[in-house]
Amino acid sequence: MLPPENRLRRRQDFATAVKRGRRAGRPLLVVHLRRADEQQVPVGGYSDSHPHVAEETSSARAGFVVSKAVGPAVVRTLVKRRLRHLVRERLARLPAGSLIVVRALPPAGSASYLELAQDLDAALKRLLRTDPASSGGGSGR
């Protein structure tokens, strides 16, 4: 399980990571990463009340999306547990204050732990090796 300070809970945090973060797609999952140095904080602070402001700037936080397309409840739970464990081991690599969302794709339901780990490592490697300043117009959505 992830420690409480490393969990994404708010819908707005998920949306920020997905819409404004960088994305790396793999056959089993898609990883969205919003680095802390890319985030713009309004001059007056946050527009909504946020009880955990200190957490956002201190440690990386992770969230997971595993839809019904992945499989029945037992399979989805297994995939979520595997992903949580894998991300927990890799949180130290992420910049402080970053938001990461890992979205499992349907083939993740039949993937092994090792296959999930390989896809997650490849996605994180791609997201962390690139310079955030160079992501201005080359994403091609």
TrEMBL record:
Keyword rRNA-binding: no
Descriptive protein name: Ribonuclease P protein component
Subunit record text: Consists of a catalytic RNA component (M1 or rnpB) and a protein subunit.
PANTHER family named in the record: RIBONUCLEASE P PROTEIN COMPONENT
Catalytic reactions on record: Endonucleolytic cleavage of RNA, removing 5'-extranucleotides from tRNA precursor
Alphabetical list of NCBIfam families matching this protein: rnpA (TIGR00188)
EC number(s) on file: 3.1.26.5
Similarity-based family: Belongs to the RnpA family.
Keywords: Endonuclease, Hydrolase, Nuclease, RNA-binding, tRNA processing
Organism encoding this protein: Kitasatospora nipponensis
Functional summary from the UniProt entry: RNaseP catalyzes the removal of the 5'-leader sequence from pre-tRNA to produce the mature 5'-terminus. It can also cleave other RNA substrates such as 4.5S RNA. The protein component plays an auxiliary but essential role in vivo by binding to the 5'-leader sequence and broadening the substrate specificity of the ribozyme.
Pfam family, one: Ribonuclease_P
